Amino acid sequence: MCILIFSCLLSLLDTTQLGGLIGSLSTSGKSFFSVDWHDKILISIQVPRNRYWGLHPPPAPLENVIDDGLTAIQRAVFLKKAGVETAVDDDFHLNPPSRADLLESAIQNMIRYLQACRDNDLTPSLREGVDTLLMYLYRALNRVDDMERLASCENSCVVEELETLLNDSGHLRTLAFLYAGKGMSAKALGIWCILARNYSQSSYYKEQSEETESTTENEDSTTDLQVASRKVIFGRETAAIEASRILEESSDQELVLQHLGWIADINQTLAVQVLISEKRINQLSPDEVIAAIDLKKVEILQRYLQWLIEEQYSDDTRFHTTYALLLAKSALETYEMELTTQNSVAGALKNEMYVSEFGASSIFETPVRERFQIFLESSDLYDAEDVLDLIEESELWLEKLGHETLVLQILALKLEDCEAAE
Question: Domain residues of the chain, as ranges?
């Protein structure tokens, strides 16, 4: 199919266009094809068009050219065996090329030619043809890295001509890069979401198990399973990273909130970056964002509220009060976890910090109690009575140790209760 498109592409160009395209290359056409293009162009000018195509037949599908060449080789071999001198040398006679080898070699040379064409100043229509055909040829040789590199850089590929091919062949990453480059964000995000879900541990474990059994029955498969697990994590993380890059620049609030959930399930830090990104033209509605965040993702909600208050200078008392209450609840939960597990202070700090699947840095690097105290002291816009009602009966505050004593004093002062503060 890709070769037929190449033939059609050449047949659509008149001789002057074809000559101009090839003549514009910094490298002579002879380095790619054994044709003197300048002589061919000269002939086309001097000979009427109907006679020109009689002397030089129109392009044919490459498979047909190779089949004709193989037939000629077989005929030459037969004649040589019969004692007739032919142009085929002995080495070629003893090791004749296969059809697959010739086809691959031809496609590789066409790729080299088209890659050289991309460096020249082409018209928009020619650039579309070159890039689209180049993607077809990469696909024909299954050069996945080249496909993704072309799709993710600036290109003139016609997506409508490629999406069926790439979708049917399973090259969804390449298709996602193409969609993103052409501004089709919804389609690109849909693919990254599908890929993230498809990176399931069970499928990788199954593949690794089958490979292990085929290699040796007694071999320990622990290492293989660890490698498979890393592949799963890497694949899901990559999908989330690529999706977050698109969403960080998107002002489409519905689209952002639609994909926020699965990104947060993979990496909460990426989800926060999507919400607080300064790259988008229009910021998201805080009320809509807060309503969309999963209540179980407390760290994301805390970080978003912190951003609204400290970096966007929001004076909305609802946000200040909600943030204070969330910090208070987290501090209480951390303390209860300490009592239950009897962990050390270092262990407690680790429990309250979110760590990604790669062991990356947490959303918050300071302990929640310290953040709670700092916020209560710095803000005057939260409802101190609501916060005090939440914490005053807990065992943590009854002990009144360290930060807890300061917190109670701050709340009392906010409520203008001097006796309670003392």
Answer: 2-121, 183-201+226-294, 309-422
Question: In angstroms, rounded to a whole number, what is the distance separating the alpha carbons of residues 409 and 417?
Answer: 9
Q: What is the mean pLDDT of residues 215-222?
A: 47
Cα–Cα distance for residue pair 322/328, rounded to 1 Å: 10
* % pLDDT > 70, the chain: 63
HSE-up of 264 (CA within 13 Å, CB side)? 22
How far, CA to CA in Å, does 398 sit from each of 273, 332, 402, 413?
38, 12, 12, 18
Q: Are 252 and 185 in contact (CB under 8 A)?
A: yes
Instruction: Say whether 118 sits in a helix, a strand or coil.
Output: helix
Integer distance in angstroms from the first to the last C-alpha of the chain? 85
Report residue 152 as tokens.
């993710």
- CA 191 to CA 189: how far, in whole Å? 5
Q: Does residue 359 carry a pLDDT above 50?
A: no
At residue 95, the 3 state secondary structure works out as coil
Each as own residue / partner, the long-range contacts of residues 393-400 (CB below 8 Å, 24 or more positions apart, any chain) are 394/332, 394/335, 395/335, 395/339, 396/331, 396/332, 396/335
**Residue 182: per-residue pLDDT:** 95
Total count of residues recorded for the chain: 422
Supply the pTM of this predicted model: 0.70
- CA-nearest of 368, 369, 334, 372 to 351 is 334
pLDDT above 50 for 277: yes
Contact 326, 315 (CB under 8 A): no
Q: What are phi and psi of 263, to 5 degrees?
A: -65, -40
Query: How far apart (Å, rounded) are the C-alpha atoms in residues 67 and 242?
Result: 44
- Do 247 and 256 meet the contact criterion of CB atoms below 8 Å apart? yes
What Cα–Cα distance (Å) separates residue 157 from each residue in 45, 132, 163, 401?
32, 5, 11, 65
Rounded CA separation 49/202 (Å): 63
Cα–Cα distance for residue pair 372/132, rounded to 1 Å: 56
Please state which of the ranges 149-158, 249-258, 359-368, 410-419 shows the lowest mean pLDDT. Answer: 410-419
